Structures are given as C-alpha cells and as structure tokens.
Amino acid sequence: MAPVRVSVVIASTRPTRIGHHVADWVLAGLRDLAAPAGRTVEVTVHDLRELALPFLDEPGQPADGHYVHDHTRQWSAAMSATDALVLVMPEYNRGYNAALKNAIDYLYAEWDGLPVGLVGYGWHGASYAKSALQQTLERVKMTVVDGPGLSFEETLTQEGEVRADDEAQAALDTMLGELVTTARTPG
C-alpha cells in the first residue's frame, strides 16, 4: 500500500524567523505518529523562503491549471504529490503572512479535498491568523483540521524554543492523526 505523503510548509520568509523550529516540533510529532494499518508516513518539507515564489505572475487563472512558469509547475507538482498538508504559520498583525497567501493563490485544483492542518505561532497562539486563513482554505476547497497555536512566553520562546505543554502536544497529536486518517488516496 502506498505511503501517506505529508507535506509540511514553513510559511515564514523572514530572515530572523523561527518557523523552522516550530516545524521541527511538527516533524518530531510525525515521526512518533502511528500510521494507519499497512501504510507508512512519508514527509516532505517545503520552505516558502527557499521556494521564493514571486507575487502571483501567472497570466491565466489558477483554476484553469495552465501554468507557464517553472516555479508554478514545481509548486503544483509538489502539492499534487501531497496527500495531507501541515502549514506552520506565524501571525503578523492578527493575520497570516503574505508569502503564504501568495503560495495558496498560485494553485487551485491541487487544493481540492486536500486535508490541511494549521500550526500557528505568535503572541496569541496565532488564533486570529488561523481563523482568517481557514476562510481562504475553505474557499479553495481544502479540508481544514485545526491544530495547536503556540504562544510566545507560554509555549514558545521568541528564539523559537518550543515548550509545548500537554494541551499543545495533545492538539498536535490529534491534528496529525486526523490528517493521516483523512489523507487523500494517491491516484
């Protein structure tokens, strides 16, 4: 049986970001996750800073799926090869960051039915950003699975050290379990 292909996207592109530390916590949770019977979990990390998508520059509508730029084709192929997605996202000014919105806007059909977990971090556990992002993800027909929000000075230091309490760890474990259970079947 084919593995469950989970992609973890590091959404922050800031030079001084800490998202990669939060992603490491998510990756540890995925390593400890029990896969469904007969399946394994295969994880790929996508870093929006490294992907460096320019602001949406495709001449056609994403819903048409006719991409002219290599960067779009590569992003499309990566997301088409994904059965479940985890977005590791910061909260900036009560919203999610522009690089993440841009990456979502590049594609359309690739998102249809894709289960996506939200792991946010910020001063209030990214609750505002996760709420705003959920509306966008539902519009592009993704299935949103809420996940933990890490809060500075409570479950996360400003330097990126994750100090997850039992509640945050349980939220991560529950989200990852649901993502793997509801993952798209490769076809």
UniProtKB/TrEMBL annotation:
Question: Which PANTHER family does the protein's record reference?
Answer: CHROMATE REDUCTASE, NAD(P)H-DEPENDENT FMN REDUCTASE LOT6
Query: InterPro entries given for it?
Result: Flavoprotein-like_sf, FMN_Rdtase-like_dom, NAD(P)H-dep_reductase
Question: Which Pfam families does this one have?
Answer: FMN_red
Q: What is the protein name for this chain?
A: NAD(P)H-dependent oxidoreductase
Q: Which domain of life is it from?
A: Bacteria
Q: Which residues form the NADPH-dependent FMN reductase-like domain?
A: 5-153
Species source reads Pedococcus aerophilus
Which residue windows are coiled coil? Answer: none
